[in-house]
Amino acid sequence: MTRYSLFTTCPRGLESVLQQELSALGCGQPEPTDGGVACKGTLEQVYRINLHSRTASRVLLQLTKGSYRSEADIYTLARNIRWAEWFGLEQTFKVKVEGKRARVKSLDFAALKIKDALCDAFRDALGARPSVGKTNPDVRVHAFIGEQTVQIFIDTSGEALFKRGYRQDTGEAPLRENLAAGLLLLAGYDGTQPFQDPFCGSGTIAIEAAWIAARRAPGLMRRFGFEKLK
Predict the structure, then answer these.
(1) Sequence-ordered list of residues with C-beta below 8 angstroms from that of 68, at least 6 positions apart, any chain
(2) Residue 199 CB partners (closer than 8 Å, separation 6+)
(3) For 74, what's the count of Cα atoms within 13 Å in the CB-facing half-sphere?
(4) How far is CA 118 from the centre of its chain?
(5) Which of 10, 95, 96, 224 is deepest in the core (most CB within 10 A)?
(6) In a 3-state reduction of DSSP, which class is residue 151?
(7) Which residues, in sequence order, are bridge partners of residue 8?
(8) pTM
(9) Predicted confidence (pLDDT) per residue in 33-69, tens digit
(10) Closest CA relative to residue 62, chosen from 5, 1, 16, 110
């Protein structure tokens, strides 16, 4: 079974908790870094992380990684990905690029080059290209550009994983659900201890505590990006 390079993002400060979660789910070589944990995993483990991780924000599956000197190199890397093996012409997509000391004219321009490369790859393979979906795309593509390397990922989560699916509205200062769960896990809460939240607000910490105590998977009430992939 193919093992992929994954990068699972999380709120900063929760990398150690996420690392423990990924290890418990059988992922190989989990390495925490700023804002997430890199690891190796099969597609089955990708599905399990999305369903079971309480602290993850997104599970990104790496499609390519390489060095670059210009935007043309980034285009070539993206062009060589077999995009049509991951999703179809009828589906919409969106590209998001982040960078740290990136040596490009702008991150927006780099995103445009990746979009062009994806569309050109589809035209070569199928004679047509999919459309961009700015608001609610079927498929999300993420790229991280460093000083010397670029990594391109496909997002297996879709909407961010803190959106559990149970909340229809939020209070004035909502606490993200994965941050609430991470605070509980950092404090050593495992559901066996008495729990009280005297500053309850909209109840996010209390709800996450109840889900931990009930051993309930946080993703049971939502859909995932991987459901739209081939």
Answers:
(1) 74, 77, 103, 145, 148, 149, 150
(2) none
(3) 31
(4) 20
(5) 10
(6) strand
(7) 37, 59
(8) 0.94
(9) 999 999 999 999 999 999 999 999 999 999 999 999 9
(10) 5
Beta-bridge mates of residue 149? 67
Q: Which amino acid is at 53?
A: S
Residue 31 in tokens: 């390495």
Are the beta carbons of 177 and 218 closer than 8 angstroms? Answer: yes
User: Distance between CA 73 and CA 114 in Å, rounded?
Assistant: 10
Q: Go through the chain and tell me how many residues it has.
A: 230
Amino acid at 40: K
Give the tens place of pLDDT for each residue, 75-85.
Answer: 999 999 999 99
By the 8 A CB rule, do 84 and 122 touch? yes
Sheet holding 139-145, edge to edge: 28-33, 36-41, 4-9, 58-67, 149-155, 139-145, 93-99
28-33 and 4-9 strand pairing: unpaired
Point out which residues pair with 59 in neighbouring strands. 8
Six-digit token pair at 71? 């935007």
Instruction: Write b or e for each residue in 75-84: b if 16 or more Cβ atoms lie within 10 A of its Cβ, otherwise e.
Output: bebbbebebb
